[in-house]
What does this fold into?
Amino acid sequence: MAPAAFDAEAGANGSSHEAKPAPAAEADAGAAFVLESKGTWWHAGFHLTTAIVGPTVLTLPYALRGMGWALGLTALSVMAAVTFYEYSLMSRVLDHCEARGRRHIRFRELAADVLGSGWMFYFVVTVQTAINTGVSIGAILLAADCLEIMYTSLASNGPLKLYHFIIIVAVALAFLSQLPSFHSLRHINFVSLLLSLGYTILVSAACIRAGFSKNVPAKDYSLSSSKSEKTFNAFLSISILASVFGNGILPEIQATLAPPAAGKMMKALVLCYSVIVFTFFLSSITGYWAFGSHVQSNVLKSLMPDSGPALAPMWLLGVAVLFVLLQLLAIGLVYSQVAYEIMEKSSADAARGRFSRRNLVPRLLLRTLYLAFCALMAAMLPFFGDIVGVVGAVGFIPLDFVLPILMYNIALMPPRRSPVFITNTAVMFVFAGVGAIGAFASIRKLALDAGQFKLFSNNVVD
It folds into this structure.
């Protein structure tokens, strides 16, 4: 069952009343310090946008490559609509619980309370921690790769290696990680939103220019002639889309809203999805149009081929890479918050000030050690691009496509024969199946590419 602190506090008549903060929120340092609830809906929109709209948008032309124009754009549109719907359902479940006197600020406790299962608590915390740690590792690795790209363009035979840049990024994140709460990131995440718009426009403009260049490969939008290969590529692309749209931390983002939070998250979702529609469709269409079936897993690499001249002005590509680098720092900070909350729930004392020596020393030590671990994994396993599809199928699909519908059907109990219940159930089963097949396709590709992997390699493997 759910922890006692999250038992229902509603009256016997079940009437709605203003939510009281859960007792845990008063005595729990993870809640009081990391997930402090002071934000507005636009702050939540900034957090949500940073959690979803990242440099992974540069993989979208590659996702279209596996499906072609018609199926690719249809899948992109359906995924946008479904994820917006799913996130709105989860927000409604959170509002429903808050109206009954128990405001949940953690995904794991929301799932355990609504589903009434202790094992669900541990399932969510395990998957969520794996996703967040994985994204943090990926952010460090890709930010270091951006630094290496800029460095080699200035000093092609310089002595610095990939792991040097990983250390630089980790040190920068360790410094920024001392911002004590998720709410503290609101200004950084607003800049992150602007950066995502900036590099999307720059890269899309570069793709349009490249599409008219004589140096670009002949445009070919054909799919594999093998039915099995075509099927695997399509499901791999869907897994990539699930990763791009997933976040897995919506309850923690909603927790940053000043109570009462009811209704505010929908405004944040509208802000976030306005940015998503612009950036995702623009980068997908321009990148796939320019390079077709030759597009690489990161369209920037198609613009900067290993042989031959760059297909866009170097100043433009340099600014785009700089914007990506800066946003990756924000993404690393956002996805570290769950780990910090878990650590501080056990290590900090909510009765003391957050900047007291009692709380400052453990925060400095634990957050730095966590980032050192992520940096070590990034240096040791520089092939994180191949794991994106696996993460999407195994991690994001359960948390973002299955559990929100399951919790909505249980918490708000729509009639079993109603269109809402039938639609919800259909979407849940479709994406559970897609997740299973996508996981198989992603793991298959990981196995096929295993020969390229080398521990502590100086190159990031696609």
